[in-house]
Amino acid sequence: MKKVVIMGCGRTGSWLANLLDAAGHNVTVMDVETYSFRRLSPGFKGKAIVGNGIEQEALKKAGIEEAEVFIATTQGDNRNIMAAQMAKHIFNVPRVICRIYDPLRQEIYQTLGLETISPTTIFAEMLKKWVEG
Q: What pTM does this model have?
């Protein structure tokens, strides 16, 4: 069981929070909008924290200092990158994963040591495979 902090409770963040919670992990999900937490399943046992993941106090409130994994899943590349950098370099979270939509930025931040994932790249590769059949 791992202590996981997820920034962003949109479609991806909430789905991931529900999956990890159901698998027995200790999950805290944070979002700037209370309304976003409606996406969490009724049986969600983790914590839902209102806060901005690029603010140190909000990250501390979410338990970043004890986290083993931090995942940034908001719609904003800049916010995700900044929060991931803070988690990695200020709070020394062992595993930090950052969603970045822009494939060029993903490559740049990957070379700088951030663990990144680009849904844009993944989806394009899937479509290419389907076209090539």
A: 0.93
Which fold does the domain 3-132 belong to in CATH?
Rossmann fold (3.40.50)
Residue 71 DSSP code: E
| Integer angstrom CA distances of residue 11 from 31, 66, 67, 105 | 12, 25, 22, 22
SS3 8: coil
Type and span of the H or E element at 96? strand 95-99
- Measure the CA–CA gap between 132 and 125, rounded to whole angstroms: 11
Quote the tokens at residue 49: 């924290």
Measured between alpha carbons, how far is 73 from 63 in angstroms, rounded to an integer? 17
Q: Which two tokens stand for residue 106?
A: 């993903």
Do residues 60 and 37 make contact, with C-beta atoms less than 8 angstroms apart?
Answer: no
* Gap between the Cα atoms of 6 and 54, Å rounded: 12
**Chain segment 52-96, per-residue pLDDT in tens:** 999 999 999 999 999 999 999 999 999 999 999 999 999 999 999
CA distance 53 to 109: 18
